[in-house]
Specification:
By secondary structure, the chain is mainly alpha-helical. Helices cover 69% and strands 0% of the residues. The chain contains eleven helices and no strands.
Length: 227
């Protein structure tokens, strides 16, 4: 029996267990590269729960954000993997938000990664996300937060990127304008900006009269609140 258990342990160690790794110091020039590749393995590990894979995507994004151009080049290899999870059916809002956060960090002020994301059809994915009906059964109460992050990611990949702006203008058309107007009238408390408003301006849309009046009423109500 002991020999059988030893063989099972050896088989597990060979196929599943992660080998012991030498710790990498934070000051090491390879720190970000090493961590991105480590989390990239988790991202691609289909044996892990989606929540853990999504957290790995978020960690990759944060490491890219803090690691500079070279780290961004390494992280670009995992953009398609993040897209694949984002488009899986019945994915939880928690998973989707983590992936959107990771992509936002990964594409922040990085034209190369923005272009890679565009080639992976990120614009179509964002448009589909914004067009989801919040009133359908099973939509989830956190769907507006998913859309907020989609708006933020849209602003990131459109920053100084005229081809992406043009692509959203051509693909989104009236649907995108309507969805952005609806989102711009929601409560963006806690965010640096109302990114739906940012995108309305960046895409050259004009608010409809009804939307302008609604926004004006909201602003008037805000001024009447006690300090």
């Amino acid at each position: 029996m002991e020999s059988i258990l030893n063989k099972l342990q050896d088989w597990y160690d060979q196929h599943f267990a992660r080998p012991e790794e030498e710790p990498v110091k934070l000051t090491s020039p390879n720190f970000h590269h090493h961590k991105i590749i480590t989390y990239g393995a988790d991202l691609r590990n289909t044996e892990l729960p989606l929540e853990e894979r999504a957290q790995a995507a978020l960690h990759i994004g944060m490491l890219t954000y803090t690691g500079g151009i070279n780290a961004a080049m390494v992280a670009s290899n995992y953009i398609q993997d993040m897209m694949d999870i984002l488009t899986m059916p019945d994915t939880s809002t928690t998973v989707r938000i983590s992936i959107l956060k990771g992509l936002s960090c990964l594409c922040y002020i990085n034209y190369v990664n923005q272009d890679v994301a565009k080639e992976c059809h990120l614009t179509d994915i964002i448009l589909a996300c914004l067009d989801e009906d919040e009133d359908t059964p099973g939509a989830g109460s956190d769907l507006p937060i998913v859309k907020f992050w989609a708006c933020y990611l849209m602003s990131v990949i459109c920053c100084n990127n005229i081809p992406c702006i043009k692509l959203f203008q051509d693909s989104g058309d009236q649907m995108l304008q309507n969805r952005l107007e609806d989102l711009s009238n929601m409560d963006w408390s806690g965010w640096p900006q109302n990114y739906a408003e940012v995108m309305i301006g960046l895409l050259g849309y004009q608010k409809t009269k009804a939307k302008r009046e609604s926004l004006g009423n909201n602003l008037e109500m805000d001024t009447q609140l006690p300090e």
